[in-house]
Amino acid sequence: MRKQLIILSAFFISMTVFAQKDELKSTEKAIKSNDFATAMSAVNQAEGLIVDADQKTKAKFYYLKGLALYQNGNPNADIEKVGNAFNQLITYEKETGKQRYSSEIGELLNKMIVAAAENASNSYSYAIETKEDADYLKAAKEFYQVYVLSPRDTSYLDNAALVYYFAKDYDSSIKLYEELLDLNYTGITTVYVATNKETKEDVTFGDKKSMDLQVKLGLAENPREEVKESRREMIFKNLAQNYSDKGNNEKALEIISKGRTEFPISYSLLIDEANIYYKAGDNAKFKERLEEAINLNPTEPTLYYNVGVMNMDQKNIDEAIKNFEKAIELKPDYADAYNNIGAAIIEKAAPIIDEMNKSLSDFKKYDKLQAQQFEIYREALPYYEKAFTYNKTNISTIQTLMGLYENLEMPDKLNEIRAVYDNLKE
Asked: Residue 193 forms beta bridges with which residues?
């Protein structure tokens, strides 16, 4: 009885082998006839039988499956499926050490990669011109197709993630950026550059061998290797920005926190964190992060300016003025900082104006308070004039100057600035 079972098992194995070969023959015949629908039907039939096939049969199955999907270069073919099938064959033959079909499929795959990369680049250039979400989305999908065709070229996955963001497809962008982080992608690459002797323009080569050949032939000079910086910090930034633009500030801050753990002295991530807190309405945390940023980059005027704005919001007028003055020290033509010093000084007149409104019937007290008010206005005036000197189109500054000149009874100055105002309003 046991002997009979063994014979039956051998019989079923033989039947499976025959079925495999029949389906592969049908697939091959259909491909040669350009009947790709029939070819794919045969592939699907063979798929379940191929698990226990020998190396030669498996390789041929992967080969025919790829060709059936490729459809002799049909532009309507599913590029992602074709790429997966071609790479499956190449990987399998590499693992088995017997490369029968890899050369042929490799040529087809390279042809597809070049075409897909060119399409993606052209689509992206067009999207930059139109600024249309749909055009960015098309380019993003094409960049992703290049990555599917050539998974080792992770820079195309990076491109796709970024362009999906431009298309406002935040979910797709998030998915790809998270994949890049999981892959420990850095984007650090070596670029080979030499100067064309005839045009004197720099040319980038795909590898060192190609660059050295051009130099040896006397067509190029000044060969050099340039290492591109890591993109990983930027991936954290862009991933957090996606979540922030979706309105999920909590998740955005979580991503920034992970990024800052990996890049603890990153000024860029710190500023992004500050901006997310600002967007979330947490001004205290925003100010705290800006002050931390000042320690990392003490010569950046906009940091002092923004801390000054936060201090003004918190009614810390003197502290605000100190920060605006520091911003001007670093950037002498900082019109907005001059404007805000003027605004901070005028803020000191608020309690005096309140007291004036309570003293409308006490003329003597009112006049005394008004004199104090105008003294503050005179103190603020030079700063607004400086702001106007460096930015002559700021309507808010011009309107404030008109009010100050009128209150301080400076008719000539008032007429001059009013003429500027009228010209801008036309």
From this structure: 204, 224
The Cα–Cα gap between 250 and 253 comes to 5
Element (H, E) at 320: helix 317-330
Residue 265 main-chain phi, psi, to 5 deg:
-110, 25
Full domain range(s) for residue 267: 233-298
What is the model's pLDDT at position 8? Answer: 41
pLDDT tens, residue by residue, 210-221: 888 888 888 888
Residue 1: inside a domain = no
For the segment 176-223, what is each residue's pLDDT rounded down to a tens digit? Answer: 999 999 999 988 777 788 888 888 888 877 678 888 888 888 888 898
Q: Give the DSSP letter string of 208-260.
A: HHHHHHHHHTTSEEEEEEEEPPP-HHHHHHHHHHHHHHTT-HHHHHHHHHHHH
204 HSE (CA, 13 A, CB side): 7
Say how far apart CA 193 and CA 223 lie, in whole Å.
Answer: 6
Same domain, 219 and 165: no
Phi, psi of 202 (to 5 degrees): -75, 140
363-390 helix and 395-407 helix, angle to the nearest 10 degrees:
140
Return phi, psi of residue 411, to 5°: -60, -40
Question: 215 is written with which tokens?
Answer: 């130099």
Q: Which of 256, 280, 298 is the last residue of a domain?
A: 298
User: What are residue 202's DSSP bridge partners?
Assistant: 195
Can you give the pLDDT at residue 202? 86
- Residue among 270, 291, 386, 271 at smallest CA distance from 339: 386
Query: What is d(CA 371, CA 365) in angstroms, rounded to the nearest whole number?
Result: 10
The three-class DSSP label of residue 1 is coil
Indicate the SS3 state at residue 100: coil
pLDDT at position 1, please?
Answer: 37
Token reading at 70: 């490729």
pTM: 0.71
Q: Coil, strand or helix: which one is 183?
A: coil
284-311 pLDDT, tens digit per residue, is: 999 999 999 999 999 999 999 999 999 9
Domain count, the chain: 4
* Region 75-102 average pLDDT: 84
Give dist(CA 12, CA 112) in Å, integer. Answer: 41
The verdict on 145 and 23 lying in the same domain is yes
- Separation of alpha carbons 302 and 417, rounded Å: 28
